[in-house]
Amino acid sequence: MPSHPVDVHVGSRLRLRRRMLRISQESIGKAIGVTFQQIQKYEKGVNRVGSSRLYAFAKILSVPIAFFFEDFNENAREGFAESPAAFDHGRMDSKETANLVSYYYQISDPAVRRKVMGIIKSLAASTGEDE
To answer: Which domain holds residue 66?
Structure first.
């Protein structure tokens, strides 16, 4: 049975935040009482994350539970705003990307974050690499 798009999205957000904080799968697994293999399955969306476990992840990773659902578009094809081919996992998993996201979320003011996002979109559009 294929993974549900919500499970895949939640898992990818879990992986993103874990990497932003530079926490190993083994460390986070120990913190909630599961193996690193189970963390891998959660991150790939193979296994669903239950509500109590999601709550534990949110506490450990210092994010609100809503973080795991940010940017999810239930009306888009396969649950993603972009086509699955748009995700270049090589770039998404890079240290550079993790650093960029980490710095972005260190900006506490949402209005400033939106402005930063606008600048990045403008720069990408000017180089012809926007969406």
So the answer is: 5-87
Would you write out the chain's pLDDT as a tens digit for each of its 131 residues? 778 899 999 999 999 999 989 899 999 999 999 999 999 999 999 999 999 999 999 999 999 999 999 888 765 544 444 454 444 455 666 778 878 888 888 899 989 999 999 998 899 888 765 44
Q: Is residue 116 part of a domain?
A: no
Whether residue 33 lies inside any domain: the answer is yes
Residue 10 inside a domain? The answer is yes
Report how far residue 127's alpha carbon sits from residue 19's, in angstroms, rounded to the nearest whole number: 28
Q: Do the Cβ atoms of 44 and 11 come closer than 8 Å?
A: yes
